[in-house]
């Protein structure tokens, strides 16, 4: 069976406490499925102030399929994801968070459900099934945010913020260019991406995925308010 080419993009900011676990889990998964995939892991160090880069540099000596993108100023998750995609060598791109709250095994389900050698571009967007109950604030803020996205954009997607996206971008297609033209640098980049796909009639498939809740969430009330204004900017400047 022909191997599937896959680039995995992982944005990182001050992840020294869990970057080793992330590297180990991703490496173990791909090494155990090396008969299925040609792969590269692209870690984007988004201006970390701890020793995230140093840990990644050591890991790269052990795992030659690791690549590192780094820069000095913390700019935001959306920017980090775009920088990672610029460096991808393969046209199948999996985007995951460093905490791996959605596990890399989701790739096996995507492979079963979709033709990853197709000439048609598409994206697979996660729809979270919570394995661990969330704190009350996160449940409320998440429901409010999903309601706002549905009201403002009128898109059919259920869970724009699920930290798993799979991009199938065949050669000679402009989907990657569309992605890199996006402007949002923060957490609202997910919405901007889906809205761009929806407007440009690019197929978006939703996939129910197990979500292992991360209690070290960096979503605060201040960031939630900021994301609301980012939504308005995306909707009315597009």
Q: Rough shape? A: globular
Order of helices and strands: EHEHEHEHEHEHHEH
Q: In angstroms, what separates the terminal alpha carbons?
A: 43 Å
Which CATH architecture? Alpha-Beta Complex
Q: Can you walk through the features of this model?
A:
The chain has about 240 residues and is an alpha/beta fold. The chain has one domain: Spore Coat Polysaccharide Biosynthesis Protein SpsA, Chain A (Alpha-Beta Complex). The protein has helices at about 20-30, 50-60, 75-85, 105-115, 135-155, 175-180, 190-200, 220-235; strands at about 5-10, 35-45, 65-70, 90-95, 120-130, 165-170, 205-210. Strands 3-2-1-4-6-5-7 form a seven-stranded mixed sheet, with helices on both faces. Strand 2, helix 2 (about 50-60) and strand 3 (about 65-70) form a beta-alpha-beta unit. The longest helix is centred in the middle third of the chain and has 18 residues, at about 135-155. The radius of gyration is 17 Å and the shape is globular. The mean pLDDT is about 90.
Topology:
Elements lengths: L3 E9 L6 H14 L4 E10 L5 H11 L3 E6 L5 H10 L5 E5 L9 H8 L8 E9 L5 H18 L10 E5 L6 H6 L8 H11 L3 E9 L9 H17 L1
Parallel strand pairs: 1-2, 1-4, 2-3, 5-7
Antiparallel strand pairs: 4-6, 5-6
Helix pairs in contact: 5-8
Keywords:
8 helices; 7-stranded mixed sheet; Spore Coat Polysaccharide Biosynthesis Protein SpsA, Chain A; alpha/beta; 238 residues; 40% helix; single chain
């Amino acid at each position: 069976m022909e191997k599937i080419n896959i680039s995995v993009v992982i944005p990182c900011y001050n992840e020294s406490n869990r970057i080793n676990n992330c590297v180990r889990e991703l490496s173990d998964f791909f090494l155990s499925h090396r008969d299925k995939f040609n792969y590269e892991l692209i870690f984007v160090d988004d201006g970390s102030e701890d020793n995230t880069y140093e840990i990644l540099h050591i890991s790269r000596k052990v795992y030659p399929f690791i690549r590192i993108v780094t820069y000095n100023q913390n700019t935001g998750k959306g920017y980090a994801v775009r920088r990672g995609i610029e460096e991808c060598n393969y046209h199948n791109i999996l985007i995951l968070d460093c905490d791996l709250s959605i596990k890399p095994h989701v790739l096996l389900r995507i492979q079963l459900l979709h033709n990853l050698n197709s000439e048609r571009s598409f994206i697979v967007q996660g729809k979270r099934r919570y394995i661990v109950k969330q704190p009350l604030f996160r449940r409320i803020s998440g429901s409010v945010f999903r309601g706002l996205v549905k009201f403002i954009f009128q898109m059919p997607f259920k869970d724009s913020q699920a930290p798993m996206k799979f991009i199938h971008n065949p050669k000679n297609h402009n989907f990657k260019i569309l992605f890199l033209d996006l402007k949002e640098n923060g957490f609202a980049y997910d919405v901007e991406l889906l809205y761009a796909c929806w407007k440009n009639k690019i197929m978006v498939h939703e996939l129910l995925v197990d979500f292992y809740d991360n209690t070290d969430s960096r979503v605060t009330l201040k960031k939630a308010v900021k994301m609301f204004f980012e939504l308005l900017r995306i909707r009315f400047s597009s």
